[in-house]
Specification:
Length: 252
């Protein structure tokens, strides 16, 4: 891991968790605690975090990710309908990927017990599918992002390199016609960048509030999306533009 990548990882972890200890950063970054202390000193000087006894704390007033329980109830009905439509796109014996979005969790919660292989970086998705006998579940592993209950970081990214799936069902924070798909958290975005590149078909699951939004980190161009599944409130002009770009659009 390059020094710049380590700095980026440290800042993301501190912002995601609110605080973190030197010993844990040393283990996650695979460098000595003395190196981590020097990193934290430099990052504090740059205003990226604040040193504390034995670790570091975030200097951000707001966390970059919305807690999972809040995302579950935001646009819940739209997400349920989108999840139902997404499940209709799945055939028995396929290998599919579900991300750590609340819409993917809705999919898992109503998924019929079909013979499938499901790869995910979501603890909630894995737990939801664990009771279905015919579904084989593979989890990425990695660093646990507590606010999203997902695995992120270098280990999660490397584990995705070992797999290829028929279909990926992904969500995001923003869909912009010119700037593409985006996420609010850089570590989440890096995992999703891998996910976009490992599927024969990519289904983007987004409620209408995501259209026209550009979040902090670019994930993928819209040319990498095969199908967008959204709700009936989506901007019709935007949907027509997507169709003209040979992207299938399904509204629920």
């Amino acid at each position: 891991m390059l020094v710049a990548e380590r700095y980026e990882l440290i800042v993301q972890l501190v912002n995601d968790r609110g605080s973190i200890r030197v010993s844990e950063l040393s283990e996650l970054c695979q460098v000595t605690e003395e190196t981590i202390r020097r990193d934290l000193d430099r990052l504090e000087q740059a205003g990226k975090l604040r040193r504390s006894h034995g670790g570091a704390v975030s200097v951000k007033d707001q966390q970059p990710e919305i807690p999972y329980f809040e995302r579950e109830i935001t646009h819940a009905e739209e997400k349920r309908r989108i999840a139902e439509e997404a499940i209709r796109q799945i055939e028995p014996r396929e290998r599919i990927l579900l991300d750590a979005s609340s819409t993917a969790w809705y999919m898992a919660s109503i998924m019929p017990d079909l013979p499938l292989t499901v790869l995910t970086n979501s603890i909630k998705v894995a737990m939801e599918l664990s009771g279905k006998e015919k579904i084989e579940v593979i989890s990425t592993g990695g660093i646990l992002a507590q606010r999203s209950l997902s695995f992120i970081g270098p280990l999660a990214e490397r584990s995705l390199d070992a797999y290829h799936v028929d279909k990926a069902f992904l969500s995001c924070k923003g869909v912009h016609l010119e700037r593409g798909v985006s996420e609010s958290n850089e570590l989440q975005a890096r995992v999703k960048q891998k996910m976009f590149g490992m599927a024969d078909k990519v289904f983007l699951l987004v409620d209408s509030s995501k259209f026209g939004v550009q979040a902090f980190t670019h994930v993928a161009d819209l040319s990498q999306v095969n199908t967008v599944i959204t709700d009936s409130g989506a901007d019709e002009e935007a949907c027509n533009i997507l169709r003209k770009r040979s992207i299938h659009v399904k509204t629920t």
